[in-house]
Amino acid sequence: TLPTHVELVEVGPRDGLQNESSTITTETKLELIQRLANSGLERIEMTSVVSPRWVPQMADHEAVMSSFAGKTSARRYSVLVPNRQGLESAMAQGVREVAVFTAASESFTQRNINASIEQSLRRFEPVMRMADEHGINVRGYVSCALGCPYEGQMDATRVADVSRALWQMGCREISLGDTIGIGTPLAVKRMLEAVLRDVPLEATAVHFHDTYGQALANIYASLQEGVTVIDSAVAGLGGCPYATGASGNVATEDVVYLLNGLGIECGVDLANLVETGNWIAHHLGRDNSAKAARALTSA
Ligand code: HMG
Ligand code: MG
Known about the structure:
- The protein has 299 residues and is of the alpha/beta class.
- It has twelve helices and ten strands.
- Its EC number is 4.1.3.4.
- Belongs to the HMG-CoA lyase family.
């Protein structure tokens, strides 16, 4: 049976914008985040504290964090951090929730964060300790959960091993990333079965990119396994700067449309979200990749 309620984690302001070639002003980013919150999204990954040399689009992270982190709000605003330096800057702005990231693939981890998987996990130890001391909630991402741009298919047991390591370190949620959008539903099912041997279902999230147009099918497969946390990006923004050819995240509008059809609650006002998607696509000078948005806009 399918779940009755799903939590959407909107990653557009981070995963989306980190890979858009046109730069938008900090003001527009802040408006984007506010509009996303207004549409009913309860969890928003607002930026990342990474090296501006590696990802210039996130260089204004301090301004973004200071605008939203301290706010008294029912919404959860999180930040992606690669190391202790990232956590410290996030905490300095009042952020209460962060995400660390590694991968199931050695080559990808090397290119993405200049470390081996083992080194990345060791780098997270002081992050986890500090987060724990300050009551900061940590999510852990596992990239290349269904395939790697350099190594091809990924063995589900490797994904499970990295997921278990993050879980045992204290990550309260594990987000399984199909970074290059290569997976199909049967692979998703097998991968989830492997991960769920060690990570509780309630703590498991899925993060699909839509390169091959499989994201919604993969989400449906994940719902069938009982997953209740889904990552997505408004207007299907983004990609990953270290995964050539990776297209954007699954569009939040399309996920909301799917969930509405299935009678699964997510708290988002689709019409309002579609307006925001069209608005940000216009600012970026690109088309809105969300099919539901296109259909509802021309209707
Ligand atoms: P490095 O060069 O190995 O590390 O980079 P370093 O410690 O030698 O630092 C180099 C420079 O970065 C120094 O500055 C540090 O101060 C600075 P410099 O002295 O050269 O001026 N630095 C930082 N600056 C800001 N914030 C920080 C930070 N740490 C060090 N936290 C590092 C290692 C991890 C920093 C680098 O590789 C990096 O920033 N990588 C970012 C990669 C990234 O953002 N990738 C995209 C996000 S992951 C993703 O999209 C996948 C996901 O969506 C899931 C999926 O789809 O699969 C999550
Ligand atoms: Mg991603």
